[in-house]
């Protein structure tokens, strides 16, 4: 009887100890990162978590592994407050790795994206730009002679770990473009579509106006007229490192192949990374007689069939801008 009582006390003490190890919060009060390499086994993970002060006992971690099973995922984890061992284990079993968000809006060019990468803490802008020029094989099926990934880094919100390389980020963005291309039926000969879509993306923000702008480009190219798109001139200046926040006469006289005032037809490559609506508009331009367009004071676009009508629209826009500035 005395033996059974002692045994019961031991069992109770063990249960209390196990409960304490498994459920009593433990861990850092400040931000702590733990990076679990791929292929790390449970004992090594348990030891690593104990050594970094995330859990109280590696034996408790291994006990949970026996009880709960599941797959423990590699990656970087962030801990910033004491938590029960069960919660820590569940986080690793779910693969709740620490990632940083990176949002690429429609119309961002490679320079904008590189700066966004740097601002998000995912690496330097210069390293991203170098990789972007180096890994053009990622888009060889659409643009085999491309010197840049411009146009194919699909706008979206991404999540990357702090250890993600520029090449891995670029691969993910091109993968999203590939998914969009399949959805739209772009096929392997999408280069001109992407270039046109990039111009549309920078020219107008209203989805309903995008097909009309696409139609203007089609009409002007058919007549041998230069496109005369200011965003392409700005992009030429950006490539040359001489953009000063506005377009100067010297920019309009530049010999850059992106100067659509000097060279008829499409520029040699995209000038930004277009979204789905701009790509759709490039694929399905509106059939009109329009040859010109200009923004109005309300942020919409006015279209014209001849130069006289266009000049009237431009004059109306300038008058509205003067009236607004005099208020």
TrEMBL record:
Question: Origin, by domain of life?
Answer: Bacteria
Does Transmembrane show up as a keyword for this record? yes
Database matches in InterPro entries: MLTG-like (IPR003770)
Q: Provide any one GO MF term from the record.
A: lytic endotransglycosylase activity
Q: Which UniProt keywords apply?
A: Cell membrane, Cell wall biogenesis/degradation, Lyase, Membrane, Transmembrane, Transmembrane helix
Query: Location of site Important for catalytic activity?
Result: 203
Gene3D superfamilies for this protein: Classic Zinc Finger, Endolytic murein transglycosylase
Q: A Pfam family in this protein?
A: YceG
Residues in coiled coil: none
Might you report a single GO cellular component term? plasma membrane
Catalyses which reaction(s)? a peptidoglycan chain = a peptidoglycan chain with N-acetyl-1,6-anhydromuramyl-[peptide] at the reducing end + a peptidoglycan chain with N-acetylglucosamine at the non-reducing end
- The EC number of this protein is 4.2.2.29
Q: Which family does it belong to?
A: Belongs to the transglycosylase MltG family.
NCBIfam families (alphabetical): endolytic transglycosylase MltG
Q: What is this protein called?
A: Endolytic murein transglycosylase
Organism source for this protein? Granulicella arctica
Annotated gene: mltG
């Amino acid at each position: 009887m005395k033996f059974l009582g002692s045994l019961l006390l031991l069992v109770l003490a063990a249960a209390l100890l196990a409960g304490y190890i498994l459920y009593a919060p433990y861990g850092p009060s400040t931000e702590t990162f733990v990076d679990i390499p791929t292929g790390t086994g449970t004992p090594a993970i348990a030891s690593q978590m104990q050594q970094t002060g995330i859990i109280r006992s590696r034996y408790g971690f291994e006990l949970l592994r026996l009880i709960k099973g599941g797959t423990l995922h590699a990656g970087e984890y962030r801990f910033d407050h004491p938590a029960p061992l069960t919660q820590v284990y569940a986080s690793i079993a779910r693969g709740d790795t620490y990632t940083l968000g990176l949002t690429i809006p429609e119309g961002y060019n490679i320079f904008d994206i590189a700066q966004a990468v740097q601002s998000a803490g995912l690496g330097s802008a210069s390293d991203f730009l170098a990789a972007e020029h180096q890994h053009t094989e990622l888009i060889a099926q659409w643009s085999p002679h491309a010197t840049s990934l411009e146009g194919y880094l699909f706008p979206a919100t991404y999540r990357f770990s702090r250890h993600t390389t520029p090449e891995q980020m670029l691969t993910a963005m091109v993968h999203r473009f590939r998914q969009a291309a399949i959805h739209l039926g772009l096929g392997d000969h999408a280069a001109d579509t992407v270039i046109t879509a990039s111009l549309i993306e920078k020219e107008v923000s209203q989805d309903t106006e995008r097909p009309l702008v696409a139609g203007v480009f089609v009409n002007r190219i058919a007549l041998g007229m230069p496109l005369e798109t200011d965003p392409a001139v700005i992009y030429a200046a950006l490539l040359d490192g001489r953009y000063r926040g506005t377009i100067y006469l010297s920019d309009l006289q530049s010999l850059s192949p992106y100067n659509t005032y000097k060279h008829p037809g499409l520029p040699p490559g995209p000038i930004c990374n277009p979204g789905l609506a701009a790509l759709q508009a490039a694929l399905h331009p509106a059939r009109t007689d329009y040859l010109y367009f200009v923004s109005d004071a309300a942020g919409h676009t006015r279209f014209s069939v001849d130069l006289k009508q266009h000049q009237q629209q431009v004059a109306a826009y300038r008058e509205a801008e003067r009236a607004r500035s005099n208020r």
